[in-house]
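Quick entry, no commentary yet.
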Amino acid sequence: MRGLIRALSLLVRGIDGLNQVIGRTLAWLTLAMVVVTFTVVVLRYGFNMGWIAMQESVMYMHAFVFMACAGYTLRHNGHVRVDVFYNKMTDRGRAFVNLFGSLFLLMPMFGYILWGSWDYVASSWALMEGSVEVGGLPYVYVLKTAIIAMAATMLLQGISQAIRNLLFLLGELPPERNAADEVG
């Protein structure tokens, strides 16, 4: 039993670490978005020039920050939740809610998104789909891959969250820290 608990703890740390690396790495795209958007504005209004590809690149970066970092956000309790009852619960009550939510809400939903979007994304890759705009980016298939990335990171983090809460309920882990304590 100790070996299983150790293996599950390692899995939780591995998934959390993966989403941490993804989130912190892709967060740098927000700086790139600011720089590219500033450049687009200066070129358009200062020099009466513009490139569709440059404008579309901001959309691509935003999609990857928003979608591929969803698991990172879940790890840090950054998603919206209704806290009417949750905040008043004991750590054990919260663990039950999180375990139930992960197993019966989060994982089925993102499993369906992954399953339902797979052919859509695969078709885009097969066509090497590009922008419909003249001069746009020829990588729409990469953009659509953000759907798969979102579902995968959320599923992985849901698995981590479920295991973590189960281990807590079994008395093998301390309660989760507050999200404000984890930022940084």
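second:
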Amino acid sequence: MNRRTMTKMVAMAAMTAGLLAGGSAMSTTDTAYSYAFEKIEGGKLPLSQFKGKAVLVVNTASFCGYTPQYEALETLYKNYKDKGLVIVGVPANNFGEQEPGSNAEIKTFCEAKYDIDFPMTGKVSVKGEDAHPFYKWVSSEKGEPKWNFHKYLINTKGELVGAYPSAVTPRSKELTDAIDQALAK
């Protein structure tokens, strides 16, 4: 074993020991800009590209009672995108296996049925041990999503400022007021 390999192994062991001793791989000083997804069509989707904008991140599913929220999300996006709002749809199959399709199938469904124009990520897990790192971060701050179409609001500084369960619709005053506040800061 060469010196370089040994140094890497010692560093990894120290990091692991710190985590086991109660440390955290995620800092409470993280912002949304620390995370990236894969785009549904392939390629990177770093949330840092949205600096200075408010971002509404929504875990989605194609075969859910809340799936019609896609239409309201697209309307919200069209009404607010020039004001600085970005909506990011995150397909997930965590709840009732209501998102079984491939990325290509999900993309086709969203475009054909709801004319979705906002950014969509590739399918990820949004809860549990295998959750995407962004979802581990938001879950540690505001709780884990309980079902499809759970919404997390990020302000223009990349700070997590709100979490909204599935029943809070994209047209709700509660959410639009929070978006207005997130855009004002």
